[in-house]
Amino acid sequence: MRRNKTTLGVMVLWLMCATALGVAQTLEWSSNLSAAKARARAESKPLLILFVLEGCPDCARMERSLSDPRVTRALEPFVKVMLEFNEYRDIAARYGIAYTPTLLVYLPTDNFASCHERHVGSLSPSALVRLAGRILNECEVRTAPRPEQMSPQKGASQAQQKSPPTEAWIAAQRYFAAMPSRSGTTLSPSFHDIYRNLTQRPTLARTPKTRQTP
Description:
Layout: H1 2-28, E1 29-30, H2 33-43, E2 47-52, H3 57-66, H4 69-74, E3 79-84, H5 89-94, E4 102-106, E5 117-120, H6 125-143, H7 152-155, H8 167-178, H9 191-200
Parallel strand pairs: 1-3, 2-3
Antiparallel strand pairs: 2-4, 4-5
Helix pairs in contact: 8-9
């Protein structure tokens, strides 16, 4: 007798946990499409619209996949809507739904104007996790600034961003060009030596007079 009571208590507890889990998962999926769209726009999140049919075996398999903890975590960044086909026939007709389950994906990058992906049939938990990761990556890539939209300092190469020659650089060029040729000696300063002296001591920036050979 005691064993039967213990078994019955365990079964009741299990049913209560399963019911609580199902309610929690159901709350994550809204049935108000207009409110879900407004929330997705306001929070700039991708939108999932799932059409199911009561009594549909594939829909039951899809709902079991959605209850997987991995899928629940993967779909947290999404705004999710689940609509029963018979209850929302007008919306189903508007979206061209002919079979269930059908999953539609809309992105905030194009203001939810067009359907980004459409999946007909049930998906496994691993397939849903991969789908969520791919959609989130595409959202990040699409919202990143394009190269032509970047500022010149960030988008151009260093060769394109070289500043014009300074006055000291031009003076060093003139100074070096006016120096007489001294082949065979190691005492002649290099151009970089002249430029360094001009930048450190501006008073040396005078063009020497050309010496006349006797």
